[in-house]
Amino acid sequence: MSSRASKCPWVSAALLGAVACVPPQEDPSREIPPITWSGAQLDYAPQPGAYELCAGTLPYMDRYVALVADAMGMEIDQPLVYVHGSEDGETFCEHEGTLGCSFDDSVYSRVAPQEHEIVHGVRGWQGFSHLFFEEGTAEVFGDDAPLAFRVPSNGDLLEGVMAASRERGLPTHWYPRAGHFVAYLHERYGPEPTAALLQETNAFSSPDRAIEVLEDVTGLPWAEIQENYETQPECDQAHYRYPLYGCEEPTALRPRCDGVETVWISERVACDDPTTLGPRDGEIWKSIAVEIPVDGEYLFFSYVEEGAAGATITIEECSMGCGSIVLEESMGLVLPLERVLLRAGRYALRLTRPVEAPATVELSISGPDCE
What we know:
Elements: E1 10-12, E2 37-38, E3 42-46, H1 57-72, E4 80-84, E5 100-102, E6 107-109, H2 115-124, H3 131-141, H4 157-163, H5 175-189, H6 192-200, H7 207-218, H8 222-229, H9 237-240, H10 244-248, E7 257-258, E8 261-262, E9 265-269, E10 277-280, E11 283-292, E12 296-303, E13 312-317, E14 326-330, E15 339-342, E16 345-354, E17 359-366
Parallel strand pairs: 3-4, 4-6
Antiparallel strand pairs: 1-5, 2-3, 5-6, 7-8, 9-17, 10-11, 11-16, 12-15, 12-17, 13-14, 13-16
Helix pairs in contact: 1-2, 2-3, 3-5, 6-7
């Protein structure tokens, strides 16, 4: 357990409709359970009764810490402690029913993986940033779990920035606007604005201070930043979120072609498989990636011995704009076969199965470069 004092619990994915990040009157009563697994960047500390994880989940979370740190421009000087909560254990979060929260010495979640909290946990090493931008960054680089607040971006930008407060944190209905704006900043100006906000603001910095930092790093007045941003289309998290592992992890990449011939990608999605993740929300899955060399029409063909309701292949372009290509196809043979239009670039593929229906999927992706 880290010796750093806890300063601020990050509460996210609340089932109560509102969340807060408020300095407690006294440190919450929370005892880090014994660490049962350690990787290079992550220590896993399950509460008694925490559900069993698939074989790939802990190595994946360990690697995710490093990917987040790299995306944030940070050095890792100690492992992140991930407390996996149980139904019987005491929650670390301020509000009962909250799925997860983060401190500057650990993260807590009732599920694993929960990448949203991992993002907070990594950033916590530098003390977090202004709440609006902190939650927005976790929405962009965190998980894609189907949560009630993940609706299309909406609401006035400045009102959202000002909504964060010492008394109530950032209400969850502002998360879509926060994520959408942080994605825009990354797409338009690169990682520097988010890094500057992390280094030069804290959870309770004033809106004026956050705006001042953005003006300094972009070289533009706030009015112009806001005016440019308001020309952007609105969309949901599925489009502006950056699937960090599939897009940045070298070992996730799979070859599609052998010369001019399409090759088969064979992946086993099962909880005892060393790269399968979950279970979460009744699903197990794994993330892989492919490179699309040229714009064109591509044909995804998949085969499994046993079909299952809810077995899908999600295709996500490595982009943060609302124009990102996000497609979902059923896993298995579905006729007629339809080609999809893809832009050149890297794509993350999520292969999802119901937890009770593990299977091996055979996948081919043919297109203009190989048939």
